[in-house]
Amino acid sequence: MKRIATRIPLGAFCLALAPLPALAGNIIGKVTYGGVAPPPKPITMTKDKEVCSREQHFDEGLVVAADKGLANVVVNIKDAKNAPKMVLPPKNPQLDQRSCKFHPHVQIIPAGSTMEVLNNDGILHNIHTYPKNNPPVNQAQPKFKKVMPIKFEKPDTVRLACDVHTWMSGWLIVAPNAWYTVSAPDGTFKIENVPAGNYTLSYWQETLGSQTAQVTVPATGDAKADFVFPAKK
Ligand SMILES: [Cu+2]
Fold it and tell me: How many A from CA of 96 to the centre of ligand 1?
């Protein structure tokens, strides 16, 4: 009768003592527009033209790249109970008003942070926020006031406008956790360091609204979450 080997190989023993690898990966993907991209719509400026026309202005409600990559889509994990908090950056996030345009058009900041609204135009702006969960702000920013801080305590989706230049438009996402990101001009995005498991991703675009999709983060490697955003009916 053969003896059954019961000795545990030394290699396995060492493996058992080694720290467990973190079973986490990144969710990466590209959002594309599922329709015929409308041609960029130029904006007619009616005020402070000398300063405002330092840059070309187009309607940024739907920014589609040549290959249909969709910019400015906010991607986040829904019901992210175990999500880490978004770390407050060492420097305050900034919203620049340059050439009568908000830079960036869509920005994600952590809840509890203070956003510095900059006036680099040397003319009067009037920031007007349309929040759901934070106090609204409607405040003139004269040309000499270069920086105006606004604190955002609670998670929110905030539309930004300027009451002097009615075409100025932007969005601020006040994120409750780190699993938020915004798609780049080519539509690509990445949410880092998500533990293995099944998740629901939310895709939000200012003109097209919200969509969801399922994604599975494997024990090793990244999860692909390419998404075709349905065109508006
Ligand atoms: Cu303005």
Answer: 11
CA of 81 to the centre of ligand 1 (A): 39
Burial of 186 (C-beta count, 10 Å sphere; 0-12/13-18/19+): middle
Distance CA 194, CA 109 (A): 19
Reported pTM: 0.89
CA of 130 to the centre of ligand 1 (A): 16
66-124 per-position pLDDT tens digit: 999 999 999 999 988 889 998 888 899 999 999 999 999 999 999 999 999 999 999 99
Ligand 1 centroid to Cα of residue 116, in Å, is 15
CA-based nearest residue to 24, from 195, 209, 223, 214: 195
